[in-house]
Amino acid sequence: MAKKLKALAGSVTDNQLASTIKESTQQIWLAGLGAYSKAQEEGGKIFDALVQEGEALQAKTRQSADEKIAAVADKTAGTWGRLEQVFEERVARAVASLGIPTRKDIDKLSKRMAELTEVVQQLLDAQEGEAPAAEAKPAPAKKPAPRKAPVKKAPVAKAKEAVAEEAADLLSAAEEAVKEVKAKAESVLP
Hints:
Blueprint: H1 2-11, H2 14-97, H3 103-136, H4 155-188
Helix pairs in contact: 3-4
């Protein structure tokens, strides 16, 4: 452009030079306005195209991130399960080494104590049932026999008495064991 102006300047007069400069300036101005208008038209289209590409990229990125999060969550869930199992096993071993009975042990003792209580109650009921029957029956009038040896109890009565005593002993032992278990549990557990 500058060369063109110099070439024209050399061959043309000052008036023509001013006219040529004015015309060139006008063309530059119009070219600038055209470029600006074109940029506005194309700029909106380009902006819309960029927004669409950004939305597509965001959707792909979100899907990929969700897949990776799901994979990590699966691995984490398995790890937490194993960690929980290991923790429970170690706590159970520590409790066992301290001699603290477990809930299972306490339940077992409680069940056994209930069974023994029932047996003792049955024996007591049976014993009470025999006592009135024996008292209700009048003894025949006999002459007292000479004392040779102490009177022996019937074997069934002896057995019942022995079982009742054993059940009472077991019941008291079970109650003591439960008291000890509760005391240990209270001293160890918060």
